[in-house]
Structures
1.
Amino acid sequence: MASRFSVSYWLDATGEKEARARALDIAVEQTVEIPREIVPRGYVEDEILGRLENLKSADAERGGFLAEISYSEDDVGGDFLQLLNIVFGNSSIKTGTRVESLQLSDGLRKLCPGPRFGAAGLRARTEVNSGPLIMSAIKPVGLSTSELADLTHRFALGGTHLIKDDHGLVDQPTSPYPERLKACVEAVAEANASTGFQCAYVPNITGPASQIFERAFLAKEAGAGAVMLAPSLVGFDVSRTLAADPGFCLPIISHPTFAGANVITPTTGFSHRFYFGTLQRLMGVDAVVFPNFGGRFGFSREECLSILHGCTEDLGELKPIFPAPGGGMTFERIADMQQVYGNHVIYLIGGALLRESDLASACRALRARIADLSLPAN
Amino acid sequence: MASRFSVSYWLDATGEKEARARALDIAVEQTVEIPREIVPRGYVEDEILGRLENLKSADAERGGFLAEISYSEDDVGGDFLQLLNIVFGNSSIKTGTRVESLQLSDGLRKLCPGPRFGAAGLRARTEVNSGPLIMSAIKPVGLSTSELADLTHRFALGGTHLIKDDHGLVDQPTSPYPERLKACVEAVAEANASTGFQCAYVPNITGPASQIFERAFLAKEAGAGAVMLAPSLVGFDVSRTLAADPGFCLPIISHPTFAGANVITPTTGFSHRFYFGTLQRLMGVDAVVFPNFGGRFGFSREECLSILHGCTEDLGELKPIFPAPGGGMTFERIADMQQVYGNHVIYLIGGALLRESDLASACRALRARIADLSLPAN
């Protein structure tokens, strides 16, 4: 028999009987997808069919039930997208059903070696041994390559550790991908040469299905410091493939665009901890962008804490990664954010910095402010 | 100035002032993503920044407002994923915000030539000139290739027009993809030779990012009748790329697994009409699987009607496609479904057929029942 992994689902059932029936339906829906009474005896029934391992009430405040269902590695068949299909395929179309967490098996750890760099690797590459990192974004779409490269240069002069493309920058005629890549890598290198920092330019490789790997390797060859992609748009296997490729070997930052519906309704989709934590680490992502609490989006402080937990909890060989909260961050928010994220965070500050006429000075002031507030231990 | 396309969003605002403010926020969020007061004058402000074109109350029963926002083709830059990123990128993370519809521009029609076959092309290939088509699925995962090929053979003997892989069948050791592909194509060909039907085997090509196009072309070379994929897993540009490739030239069927959160909450995500209609046609999909009303999932009759509308409404050169409702369909439901879908439908019936000991006879009975109920005109 193959090893089994398991998924915990929250169900909004009102009583245990209903919860059990719904959980057993999920065990069928996510595996054999035929009526239980015609499931072939033997291997299919004993191995492939999902198994309800545990059912208990959720905490009183939330209500409902938590059902743990185990699945066979045989069903995954070495295919990451099939793993996701088992975790939440057709059952994603049911209301009152939410993926809470995934309990890994050894086979899954082999299929998903996880982040190549992780938080520690990103620290090493940017030479930030302690305290939070800072990331910003060059934007908006419509600026020319030289204007974007100039922004990049000023961010780097100010010591912004990671300088990423806006997620809307792709290959528009105003700034074609290869041209922007070259100009921004040069802009960062020039600034680093004068400051001694190890700032990194992070191009957005989200693009046509037939070109995504080409754009990733172009970034590598050009000397980019990392790449950014949006898994909800390019598909959920691109990052895992790149992270597992020793010939690629660049950190990967994931962006939440187009993914909102997966998390924002508390009774459907995925828990924040799973979606922005576990799933990202399975995909080999090294830092995950998400909306900070109290910004332009509706994530709560508790949800953001759960993301931090998902990014850092012990998953064996799957390295801890950085949460990168953004979306309406300002200088004034930093003290409050430090209380939640401590030192294990990348602050993504875009618009608030772009307001400043002396961008490099503003970045330096931000670095100083963060250093002042940093906890003594890493 | 480039042409503009527009997106209609539903907003749950309580008054016009709030609705206007929220719509203007979306126009910024989806394009420049910097505070409005620092948007560069000239090209970026005049062209790239989203423009609120219209704002009106939604119907009284629903409440809220409908905001139409236009965007520039320049922002898309010839990239389909960037189009989706503009339609609903970061704003997907906001509650009370739902994409209702997309109004195309000429440039988008060029970027998305749409389904190569469409409903009419699928009719021609399967030689079903009028009335609904029938699709079924071989399953469950865990059966051997010869067992799956045997099911395929019996479905084809009974005249099931499209015989697809269960969406959980990928490349498991019990039935590796190339082996299953060959065996099932042969099984259908043998049955067709004896019946004179033009039934088609539809392998599931959902798989690793680095192998997806290879699997598609393997299917083509092996003589499959169409392919199936899950856009929410493989990414949203794979289907469009295949449909636009004259060297591929096979119909594409899309599966909704993992996509549920995008539609099931009425105040977030996408309207059913857009997600299972417009979007599929932009992706070049020829038939779209979704859960039928009254089955195992919660779609309403009205939502299914709106999907039919999205699959068939006039979008210029983007061909009409087939809705393929499934998920708990039984013989008894057909009369009711005919009233909703008329003849423009593919009935996806899986489990109910697999219960039958004489599968081929059951399929023939189903064909006869559907023919009896079919409307006189196509």
2.
Amino acid sequence: MERQFADLMQLLEERRFAALRDALQEENEIDIADFLESLDAEEAAVVFRMLKKEMAAEVFSNLSADTQKVIVDSITDQEIVGIIEDLYVDDAVDALEELPANVVKRILKNAKPETRNLINQFLKYEENTAGSIMTAEFVDLKRGMTVAEAIAHIRRTGEDRETIYTCYVTGPSRVLEGVVTVKELLLSRDDQRIEEIMDDDVICVTTTEDREEVARTLAKYNLLSLPVVDQENRLVGIVTIDDAVEVMEQEATEDFEKMAAMSPSEKPYLKTGVFTMARKRFMWLLVLMVSGMITGGILGQYEAAFASMPLLVTFIPMLTDTGGNAGSQSSTLVIRGMALSEISTKDLFAVMWKEIRVSLIVGIGLGAVNFVRLILTYPGNEMVALTVTLALVATVLIAKTIGGALPILAKFLKADPAIMAAPLITTIVDALSLIIYFTIASHLLPI
Amino acid sequence: MERQFADLMQLLEERRFAALRDALQEENEIDIADFLESLDAEEAAVVFRMLKKEMAAEVFSNLSADTQKVIVDSITDQEIVGIIEDLYVDDAVDALEELPANVVKRILKNAKPETRNLINQFLKYEENTAGSIMTAEFVDLKRGMTVAEAIAHIRRTGEDRETIYTCYVTGPSRVLEGVVTVKELLLSRDDQRIEEIMDDDVICVTTTEDREEVARTLAKYNLLSLPVVDQENRLVGIVTIDDAVEVMEQEATEDFEKMAAMSPSEKPYLKTGVFTMARKRFMWLLVLMVSGMITGGILGQYEAAFASMPLLVTFIPMLTDTGGNAGSQSSTLVIRGMALSEISTKDLFAVMWKEIRVSLIVGIGLGAVNFVRLILTYPGNEMVALTVTLALVATVLIAKTIGGALPILAKFLKADPAIMAAPLITTIVDALSLIIYFTIASHLLPI
């Protein structure tokens, strides 16, 4: 890949445009998009204009929003309309959503009426729903067709369809009646009727379904595409597996970001500006800093204790770190389990009961190591060793129970479980572990 | 789904087996597998034996390893062999890998020689490679065939292929020469030759390629299947998109687990035993607890300082929490960016330079809030406020630079970047922030 780019780059630098045009012909559209992303705006526009019409739309749909804007600014309205007409409607809508309103208006004015209507309809679906990621280019069969007729229909109309491999059978008013794959068509006799071979128990979703749920359904049933129907069960679009894969990657990335106390980003790391990045990180750090101050305030209550026995302070990092880590382990497993639909809100008590047992095993194990270490390092301070050990076991128990429960409780309150991740859990557990520690210390030690 | 299960469950409880058998016929294989998972071992075996032969293999391949064992123990060797013969070779190998060696031996002894040879060959590929997730059931065309001949070939042999939609063209000794999709076949004239319409620039991987890279290639190029070749470029198998999706989900889950300081688990949360879970969590907690002790030791060096000014201790949680959170934000973005191939080792300095700038903006913002708050809360203690604020800014700067750099350095050392996540970063930053804090304090304050 890198090598190919070097070749293309050399042709560009030497301004051997005819040779470059020929070389581009041989490349995959996705690699060309990568190549354009590596160029500056002016060069990208020059190279894009060299692409043959058949390639231009697919390369365009694989560009980042920023580069799409560069291209749109550098070509005529007529050329833009040509690309938009060639795109599948989901890609056209994605591109238009990123362009300034006046440009969109101008493009739609010049587009064919049916394209305009379709795009206007698709622009209305809410973000993150099935409607927002579906496309309208599917193969539509009728139950009365024979297999030979269906295959002829596909051969005639298949060119512009995003996928031909799963065909949908619709009745009057486009109501979804069945599904049949090209594999089934090819393996059937030519004179069989579609209604004999179609599966009428169709797995489908409605336009308002969450896109994450859509992706999970495609993955669960190993489907290549999933039909999307409106409230009246009329087929309005399909979501293909490649779009579902992209949704899964984006949703996982968003969860990673939220779980590390950041607002989700829209662009790859290296393409995100410094100020945008700072903004996405600042709010949560501020909230957590204030929580840290509260924890500090709690610690302030025990000033007399650690003034009289400064040794106690040196165990605080070990206690709070272990509490935070123990809690994040549990919350991470539960958040991920919920994202994969393996854990639901009804499992709250099962999760807590499991966490209590796990935390007792882990806590007592860590406590034992800790006790032995303290006895060896500080001989004669058995009561300090006992205090720290008891606080450690209690901290692990509470950290894991809270870490397991809070993501589920967040879901109960219709909040995103992913916010109940390491950073927030650590802050909560920090405060609790200090209270436990000094309460035990005040009972066992002469402070 | 839940409702369907209730119906099936009722039939099972009332022991209306004929009705249950009919009801199962109407269900999707994946839903039946879910239903079996919800039953106890004995019931699952009873229900499984009711399935028609055509369904049995697919239901079996969608069961968890534990339930597969239950089924294998409850049916005859002949029945097992029947299922193994019906499975695609990747699913057969997955199932066999989980069974006891003597059972595998018995099954293979009874299988057809070609199945046995194929399975033995596939069992040899290393875990997490392309070879370990590929299957052998693909459509194989020759360059001299006409489109009509190719379609006839697919209609004749397609039944047993895992996918027919992407066909591979092979030459002498099975060398991969080209690829053609069923869409292209259907849209071409019957008398065109395969070599005229095939794409001879095939995107493919070798058997030893990492499975994560395989999944990413399928996703990047929007492919439905990816050919796998040996060192001599001979086609030995294909990886289909549904297996790639599963790999992507598993790899993301593993990263979540590693980044929360756990060994990756093989089973869903609710199905993992308490002792297994404790084991997967204990080691890292122990390592991090020992690191926490070292941090405590560092803190011990400053005992005199906080004995003379106990107020200083109360700012420790805020400082270490903020440092840990700031560092985890950076390390999470970089680890995820590397998992998605958006960041590579050559970007080390670009990442560090970005993190330094972001951390200065974020650090100065947080520092300002912090300074104002301290001036208001502790009037007359300007030098304390200044000490804490400077320590905070320096901590954020160091935390983010280290958080961004360490995952990349781990990759340099051929280690998994995911271990350089929140828990380890927090521990490292904790120690550094305390050293910075007390060093600044010893210069600015009378301690």
